Amino acid sequence: MHSARTVAAVAAFCAVMATAPATAQTHPDFTGTYTNASLTPLARSAANKSLVVSKEEAVRIVAGTPVLGFNNGGKQDAKVTVDPKTGAPSKGGSDFGTAAYNTFWVSPGESLAVVKGEYRTSGIVDPPNGQVPYKDAAAVMKSRAAGFQRYVTGIGGNAGPEDTNLAERCLLGFSQTGGPGMLSALYNNNYEFVQTKDALLIVVEMDHDARIVPIFESEAKAKASHKPNVIKPWLGDSVGWWEGDTLAFETINLHPQQQPAGAFPLTDKGKVTERLTKDG
């Protein structure tokens, strides 16, 4: 996430700054509004061999990045519209989901993510190939394909609300915007941070998800303060601590329905560590 004055490096984009002395210190205040809109995917495209590319290469990549099936590089001035007089898309058609959007509403960003002046081709920096090291990649891809098929065609279970996914019911924002991970999506990529001496509140534009991260005096104290394992909230159970000027926080115990639904599916043993560092 970044603004003109701040880069908050999240998950794979983390950049840990020099650790301050153990004496009393004033920690950075992350209070403010941010965006993480970018066309950088979590996992690197096979067409891109390196994590960091030049500005010229970044422009070329963006120009060929499809948004809703249109190669407009995320530009909102492309004026891709749907004529309301044509009626609803055909049931089961390959554009049933995508035809619901005019580009007026679409705002995924118009550039690759810039981290400390570098254009990045993936959110993942390790492994070096920029891929999620799934334990069962085939199962993940099968589940993801089924979800995508429902989105583009509209065909799927409809016996009750539980047959639709979390994003369709607006219980959580899609693309894991709320976290853990707080990844960018097709639109609504803005965040508001409110920090106190003992907590960080993160309000997500997408679905108005909210995370409250209590901040403890040490990593050991934080991890010892997780809620009982039987408590599995939406967005997980997060606890934070300072590493010098970097705010680190660990999330475990995602809600069972959220575990398989994110950009990187997790099991009930899943654990995500995020770090926020001001740069500039």
Question: What order do the helices and strands come in, and which of them pair?
Answer:
Blueprint lengths: L31 E4 L16 E2 L1 H9 L50 E2 L2 E3 L16 H17 L36 E7 L2 E6 L5 E7 L2 H5 L13 E7 L2 E7 L18 E6 L4
Parallel strand pairs: 7-8
Antiparallel strand pairs: 1-5, 2-4, 3-4, 5-6, 6-7, 8-9, 9-10
Q: Can you offer a commentary on this structure?
A:
There is one protein chain. This protein has one domain. 11% of the residues lie in helices and 18% in strands. The chain has 3 helices and 10 strands, in the order ββαββαβββαβββ. The chain has helices at 55-63, 137-153, 219-223; strands spanning 32-35, 52-53, 114-115, 118-120, 190-196, 199-204, 210-216, 237-243, 246-252, 271-276. The chain has a 7-stranded mixed β-sheet. A 3-stranded antiparallel β-sheet has the order 2-4-3.
Alpha-carbon distance between the two ends: 13 Å
Strand composition percent: 15-25%
Please state the overall shape, judged from the principal axes of the Cα atoms.
globular
Q: Helical amount among residues, as a percent range?
A: 10-25%
Structural class determined from secondary elements: alpha+beta
**Average predicted local confidence, pLDDT:** 83
- Uncertain segments are 1-23
Into how many domains do the coordinates divide? 1
* DSSP strand count: 10
Number of alpha- plus pi-helical segments: 3
Biggest beta sheet attributes: 7 strands, mixed
